Amino acid sequence: MALACGSEQTPAKAAENASNFEFAPNVGLEFRHEMTHLDEFTVPAASFREALEWRILWNVRVEQEGEYYLYHRRLVELALSVNGEPLLAGNEITAKNAEIVQVMSRSGRAKDVTGTEQLTEAIASVLPEAQRDAATQQFSPTNLRELLLERAVDAFGDVVGKPAHVGASWPAQKSGGLLQPKEVRVDSALACGGTGCRKVVRSYDIDQQRLGDVARRRVARFVAAQKWDPETLQVIGTNVTAEDSFVVEPTTCLFHDAVLTEQGRVLLQGPAGGRAEVLLTSRDSSHAEYPLPK
């Protein structure tokens, strides 16, 4: 059984002695959560670049309703740039007071995310008109919901109830996406915010065929410039890797930091034998600032 923080021991000592990861957020807890995202495809030989970068800052408040924990997330800042050109500096969204609610079960399962339609509308209202359609597609209600369900909760389902000692490992939960999780491993113990944490590492297989399909879609402007028929474009090689790590308190499963990085190359061949090497970089990070334990 996981050890909870009790009056006889400090949070750091409780974390050191924890046997399993336990989901136990403090009701009334308020903290800030920053998320960043970079998605970049380049063809260096042709000076082609498609890049999207954003940063989101949330104010988060944890409440309880019946058997569920409610994470009220108010959007404080949204910075957005496309191909290095800033579209939003960050504070344009602040006055909208847009909020979504992330519903979590007692076992740390993400059950629902509500309010994403209103959040998309708030984002659209502060975007330049010329970029509004493309950007609101990126931050559509469906995409925002998936973002919070899949990454903002930082995979509680892969650690809750699992052993917290350094060196422990177990099979990761399967998914049907481009990244196919293989194994989760407790890499090390470290101090974090006045308590103790574990650094957890997750390994992946990558669906290289689907990756090639993504690369073909993302370099559509380059393909058009080469006058290549997209239907005849072939993927003749891929070499992409993924690294994923996160830092979590074993006694509460409060996450402090998480980083998922994908990078590598895809080799495309046009109808007349012309080739193009596509380099890709994708990076998602998450950082939370909590009050120091009393």
CATH topology: Lipovitellin-phosvitin complex, beta-sheet shell regions
How many discrete domains? 1
Radius of gyration: 21 Å
Give a quick account of the main beta sheet: strands, pairing sense, barrel closure: 12 strands, antiparallel
Residue-averaged pLDDT:
88
Spell out the helices and strands N to C: HEEEEEEHHHEEEHHEEE
- At CATH level 2, the architecture is Roll
By helix and strand content, what is the structural category? alpha+beta
Total number of helical segments? Answer: 6
* Share in helix: 10-25%
| Contiguous runs where pLDDT drops below 50 for at least 5 residues | 1-7
Protein described:
- It is a single chain.
- Strands 1, 2, 3, 4, 5, 6, 7, 8, 9, 10, 11 and 12 form a twelve-stranded antiparallel β-sheet that branches.
- The two termini are 24 Å apart.
- This protein has a single domain, classed as Lipovitellin-phosvitin complex, beta-sheet shell regions.
- A hairpin with a 4-residue loop joins strand 1 and strand 2.
- By secondary structure, it is of the alpha+beta class.
Task: Summarize it.
This protein is an alpha+beta fold and about 290 residues long. The chain is about 20% helix and about 45% strand.
Task: Describe the secondary structure blueprint for this structure.
Elements: H1 11-17, E1 30-43, E2 48-65, E3 68-82, E4 85-88, E5 99-105, E6 110-114, H2 116-126, H3 129-138, H4 141-152, E7 169-171, E8 179-192, E9 195-206, H5 208-218, H6 220-225, E10 234-248, E11 255-269, E12 275-289
Antiparallel strand pairs: 1-2, 1-12, 2-3, 3-4, 3-5, 5-6, 7-8, 8-9, 9-10, 10-11, 11-12
Helix pairs in contact: 2-3, 2-4
